[in-house]
């Protein structure tokens, strides 16, 4: 584990919540803050009994922003109990004059002054915000509400840089990993073919979003049913290096999150004499985007009325293993996953479970979610290492990219990188053991345009 000294330097935001009904909201809030570039501390694993622990006192003292998750039970009767942790955390934050930001969750209200212990009654005067995590709210609004009400950490950063995808960079190592990922997702060819046959016409057109080097698209759309495949990616160098062997494939650099994306796509389509697309395809792309709901609506407008969208995403929550416990009995994989979530601007590795919601919110119909499991039980040793690389090898480099982008200071980045590297190296060693078992799921969302 990180030393207390390093951890105190690393975290700049403290999340205060009531365990009885606030934990799910606190975790969601933590993920959102990480995406914004903050470094939140959440005491999920601390035993909620006994005296107020020294670690929490240090965390409150070292934070810049103190965020309170306001839920129905947060300021109930327990707030008056002796040694109530929520009360002690807020009291300390008030004494230290921290930037206190109450976040009001659904069905909750800010407490009135007379309902609070006298030590924290001034908390009731704090201006609360309501980041709507529950309804289909434009994510940009929700994130901007949080950004505007928190401290100065991001104030000097250009808004354009505040993207989840900022922690992604296609270097030589990542190209090798992606080639292995393409092999692992070749199953998509059958799914794409089935969708194409449902459309029941020839000369189908496809928009391949985040096509990278185009290898997966060449596999999935090799069928003669497809007459034009336009692949787009924001990496200009990668697009420029693609070798086009089939005139049906066209590639162009487009940042799908840029404000000019729609206009750029329209221009490309006009040049290629494409009015609308029969299929929009996005494999392993959405988790790099900041505002997925906005992009879903954008892509929908380029689909034919009966067109289909196919989106593919990973989900760290479905990674299972047996034989990965360390000497303390803790799962190495779960430690890696938790530390990935702490990397500022890291991509959303829990997006597979959100595909249905995103598609439904955008107004698509006939939605179905499929899953494909990959596991080590029948793999050769080299194939096991390929699966490890696809799922884990890149994670230490995510820390270095966050440091490179200025989201982590050198000392924090070094400590975080070394710990992540140590865990990944140990897990790689476990993958080589014949008795070790691991599985991971990909999730595929398929839906039809309802317009």
Number of strands: 12
CATH architecture of the largest domain: 3-Layer(aba) Sandwich
Q: Beta-strand level of the residues, as a percent range? A: 15-25%
How far apart the termini lie comes to: 52 Å
| Corresponding CATH superfamily of the largest domain | Vaccinia Virus protein VP39
Largest sheet: 8 strands, mixed
Please state the average pLDDT score. 85
Describe the structure in your own words.
- The protein is α/β, with parallel strands linked by helices.
- The protein folds into two domains: 4-156, Toll/interleukin-1 receptor homology (TIR) domain (Rossmann fold); 167-448, Rossmann fold (3-Layer(aba) Sandwich), CATH 3.40.50.
- The chain is 39% helix and 18% strand.
- The chain contains 16 helices and twelve strands.
- The protein has helices at 4-10, 19-36, 54-62, 85-95, 139-149, 172-184, 188-199, 215-220, 236-241, 261-271, 292-300, 332-341, 355-361, 381-393, 395-404, 410-431; strands at residues 13-16, 40-41, 65-70, 99-104, 204-209, 226-233, 249-253, 277-283, 303-314, 320-322, 365-375, 437-448.
- Strands 5, 6, 7, 8, 9, 10, 11 and 12 form an eight-stranded mixed β-sheet that branches. A four-stranded parallel β-sheet has the order 2-1-3-4, with helices on both faces.
- Helix 11 links the parallel strand 8 and strand 9 (303-314).
- The termini are far apart.
């Amino acid at each position: 584990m990180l030393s207390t000294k390093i951890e105190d330097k690393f975290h700049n935001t403290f999340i205060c919540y009531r365990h009885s009904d606030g934990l799910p909201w606190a975790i969601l809030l933590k993920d959102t803050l990480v995406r914004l570039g903050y470094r939140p501390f959440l005491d999920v694993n601390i035993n909620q009994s006994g005296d107020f622990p020294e670690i929490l006192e240090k965390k409150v003292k070292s934070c810049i922003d103190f965020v309170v998750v306001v839920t129905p039970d947060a300021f109930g009767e327990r707030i008056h109990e002796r040694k109530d942790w929520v009360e002690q955390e807020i009291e300390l934050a008030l004494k230290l004059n921290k930037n206190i930001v109450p976040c009001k969750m659904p069905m909750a209200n800010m407490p009135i002054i007379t309902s609070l212990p006298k030590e924290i009654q001034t908390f009731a005067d704090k201006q609360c915000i309501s980041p709507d995590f529950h309804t289909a709210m434009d994510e940009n609004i929700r994130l901007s509400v949080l950004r505007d009400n928190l401290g100065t950490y991001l104030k000097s950063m250009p808004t354009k840089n505040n993207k989840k995808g900022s922690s992604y960079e296609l270097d030589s190592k990542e190209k090798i990993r992606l080639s292995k990922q393409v092999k692992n997702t070749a199953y998509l060819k059958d799914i794409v073919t089935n969708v194409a046959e449902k459309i029941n016409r020839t000369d189908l057109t496809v928009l391949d979003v985040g096509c990278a080097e185009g290898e997966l698209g060449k596999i999935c759309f090799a069928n003669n049913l497809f007459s034009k495949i336009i692949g787009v990616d924001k990496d200009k160098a990668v697009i420029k290096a693609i070798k086009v062997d089939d005139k049906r494939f066209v590639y162009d650099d487009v940042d799908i999150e840029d404000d000019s994306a729609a206009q750029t796509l329209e221009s490309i389509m006009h040049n290629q004499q494409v009015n609308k697309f029969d299929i929009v395809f996005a494999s392993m792309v959405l988790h790099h985007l900041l505002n997925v709901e906005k992009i879903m609506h954008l892509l929908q407008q380029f689909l034919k009325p009966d067109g289909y969208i196919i989106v593919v995403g990973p989900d760290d929550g479905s990674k299972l293993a047996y034989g990965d416990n360390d000497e303390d009995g803790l799962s190495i994989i779960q430690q890696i996953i938790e530390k990935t979530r702490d990397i500022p601007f890291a991509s959303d590795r829990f997006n597979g479970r959100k595909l249905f919601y995103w598609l439904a919110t955008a107004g698509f119909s006939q939605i179905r979610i499929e899953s494909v499991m990959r596991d080590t039980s029948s793999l050769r040793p080299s194939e096991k290492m390929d699966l490890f690389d696809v799922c884990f090898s890149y994670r230490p480099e995510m820390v270095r990219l966050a440091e490179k982008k200025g989201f982590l200071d050198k000392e924090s980045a070094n400590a975080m990188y070394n710990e992540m590297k140590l865990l990944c190296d140990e897990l790689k060693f476990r993958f080589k053991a014949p008795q070790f078992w691991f599985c991971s799921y990909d999730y595929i969302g398929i839906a039809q345009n309802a317009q």
